[in-house]
Amino acid sequence: MFKTLLSTLNIIRSFWSTGLASELEYKFNFYFEIIAVIGNLIGSLFVLSLFYSPGATLGGWTWSNALIVLGIHTFLDGITISILQPNLSRIVRHVQLGTLDFVLLKPIDAQLWVSLRMFSPWGIPSMITGFLLIIYSLISSTYALRVSTLIVGILMLTCSFLILYSLWFLIASTSIWFVKVWNATEVLRSLLVAGRYPVSAYSAPLRTIFTFVLPVAFLTTVPAEAILGTSTGIMILSSVSISIVFFVISRYFWRYALRFYTSASS
Amino acid sequence: MIYFKKVLKKIISPYRIAGSLFSSQYALMLEYRAEIVLWAISGVLPLIMLGLWTGAEARVLAGITKEDITRYFISAFIVRQFTAVWVMVSFEEDHIEGKLSPFILQPIYPFWRYFFSHVAEQFTRIPFVLVIMIFLFIGFPQTFFIPSNKELIAAIIAIFSAFCVRFILHWTFAMVNFWTERASAIERVLMIPYLFLSGLVAPIETFPESVRAFALLTPYPYLLSFPAKILSGANVNLLQGFLCLFLWGSLFMFISFYAWRNGLKQYSSMGA
Question: Which residue has the higher pLDDT, B246 or A206?
Fold first, then answer.
């Protein structure tokens, strides 16, 4: 068990170092990515500040607490750019070209391979910015961080990553039937923008959708509450169970989808 | 008589070319209608922001009513649908894959090919937008509104002008492809001021005075906020809006012509 885990980690490490090397050829992109991240940060802070005109709050969240939500969203956005987008967009290409055959033949779990094969460095600035935002808001508020809430917060963040990954992977898996689903992930991304703001700020119908249909609430708001120590036991429990359920579904769905995979030429 | 026919032909031919470009692109776009529906849904941001602004205390403090903000963001959603521009992505693809070369050989400025493909795509979006509108008005009957004929005509002209200016702006930056690969990174940067300054995520009125003044110096508010406000029936200075759109459009048109001519000298297609 320990040995397989170690060898898996080793494989991922070599995957990512080759991926990194091939992406770093485009240095031009790097500068633009930095400009984009800074511009996005300023813009997001600006829009958030509009909701905090003197005397106003957003959904009962203070300014510095809302920054944590924004920070988590920025961080997850970085992970999306670095891991989810480069890998899962390739599933579509593999299906189109029929090269998924070669992936399935490899002596490694196919889901692991298609999900973690690439690592793009362009998400790193977002990840760092998100992390710094969280730290900044924790320092600037009077709230004293405890070890217990930090641990729960990290657990919730792991859950939110699992949910995010499963959502992406579910959509990417449907490419086995529909081939061109790249737009569908674009739809998902545009909906997940809602996670920039605490879910309690939305009107009632949207709040229901973002909690029970598309779990945006569990991506950013719940981890933020966990870090702040305001989350309830029910929320923590449902976050853990939702993430596990989503992950299991995504795994079974992938295997189910593969049964319908008939290579490119057959 | 022959001379007369020649003149007539010269007058008619641009319309014929435009017509056939449009109809062929329209047929092409109809092939991809499922994809276009997905693209259309991904323009959902104004509706998400509507969900935030209706309950926000900041809206009440700014003195904007619920009806007004709802109309504004629904209008913004419609404007966004009909001003979508992806010419930088297509141009980059055509440039890298060498597809641009046959286009250049044709006796027509390639600009028009991309332009009509965008216009055709907008027409395929119309039924989808109507369906969304019906759902919205069933869900929120109190927001139902029909703009007057005058407003509607002004709004359609404003939306189309905004689209044209945005298209020219992106076309101008697409010319960067002649000097470097992967110009699509620029598009990501270009989207940021559009996202935050155009009024897509917040009405311009809620901006602090200084930011609003700055925003109005850029072309962005005229690309979204201006047509959206006309459509929602708000009071707008039509003359100023159209004048700014015209000036920005002409400026970028001029730059893009210059860039195109210099870029072509630079151009070496794949395999050349």
Answer: B246
